[in-house]
Amino acid sequence: MYKIKIKANDEKMLPKYETAGSAGMDLRANIEELMVLQPGERALVPTGIYIELPEGLEAQVRARSGLAIKFGIGLVNGVGTIDSDYRGEIKVPLINWGDKPFSIYPKDRIAQLVICKYEKIIWQLVKELDETKRGSGGFGHTGI
Ligand SMILES: O=c1ccn([C@H]2C[C@H](O)[C@@H](COP(=O)(O)OP(=O)(O)OP(=O)(O)O)O2)c(=O)[nH]1
Ligand SMILES: [Mg+2]
Predict the structure, then answer these.
(1) Predicted ipTM?
(2) How many CB atoms lie within 10 A of CB 42?
(3) What pTM was estimated for this model as a whole?
(4) Residues contacting residue 106 through CB under 8 Å, at least 6 positions apart
(5) What are the residue ranges spanned by the domains of the chain?
(6) Are 61 and 74 in contact (CB under 8 A)?
(7) Which atom of ligand 1 is nearest to 75's Cα?
(8) For 89-116, what is each residue's pLDDT tens digit?
(9) Is the CB of 15 under 6 A from ligand 1?
């Protein structure tokens, strides 16, 4: 298990696994006052945490499905990527896709962080790629 350096003003803000098998650790809103997201509105919500990942690990910011299904709350950027050399505050670009105003209270769990391994590659520029049965078929070409 990796031990990852983290900075936070309050230990309660440290993301943690809610169950033994959770892949994600919930991120909390580091705000002083209630924030309201109107339908269609987006906001970059601070989490108060700063991390130092070794090269080869990234952190993914992902939506919480409960907020998505109940209130239409998602991430404007789909999945956020926290680079290993990023030392700034982790922030969550939330959007209210729902039809009602959504209230965020201080320390609410607004998203989750998943730590993943990634590979670095170098490109080998070629004229032809290996043939496959799929070829360029995609976007539903096998049917629905
Ligand atoms: O949901 C997110 C996405 C990104 N970041 C931070 C960490 C990441 O390392 C940095 C840059 O993110 P990204 O590469 O996605 O954004 P960019 O628009 O390409 O910015 P940059 O030019 O700084 O790389 O912003 C967050 O805090 N939350
Ligand atoms: Mg970038």
Answers:
(1) 0.98
(2) 16
(3) 0.95
(4) 29, 30, 31, 32, 33, 34
(5) 5-117
(6) no
(7) 1
(8) 999 999 999 999 999 999 999 999 999 9
(9) no
Check whether 19 is labelled as a binding-site residue: no
Kindly state if the Cβ of 52 falls inside 6 Å of ligand 1: no
The answer to whether 136 is a known ligand-binding residue is no
**Spatial contact of 58 and 118, defined as CB atoms under 8 Å apart:** yes
83 is in an annotated binding site: yes
Cβ partners under 8 Å of residue 38, min gap 6: 96, 101
Architecture per CATH, 5-117:
Distorted Sandwich (2.70)
**Contact call for residues 74 and 92 (beta carbons, < 8 A):** no
Token representation of residue 39: 């339908």
Q: What is the Cα–Cα distance from 76 to 134, expressed in whole angstroms? A: 32
Taking the centre of ligand 2 as the mean of its atom positions, its distance from the CA of residue 87, in whole angstroms, is 13
Residue bearing the CA closest to ligand 1, atom 23: 86
Q: How far apart are CA 12 and CA 110, in angstroms?
A: 14
For position 144, what pLDDT does the model report? 87
- Separation of CA 81 and ligand 2 centre (Å): 8
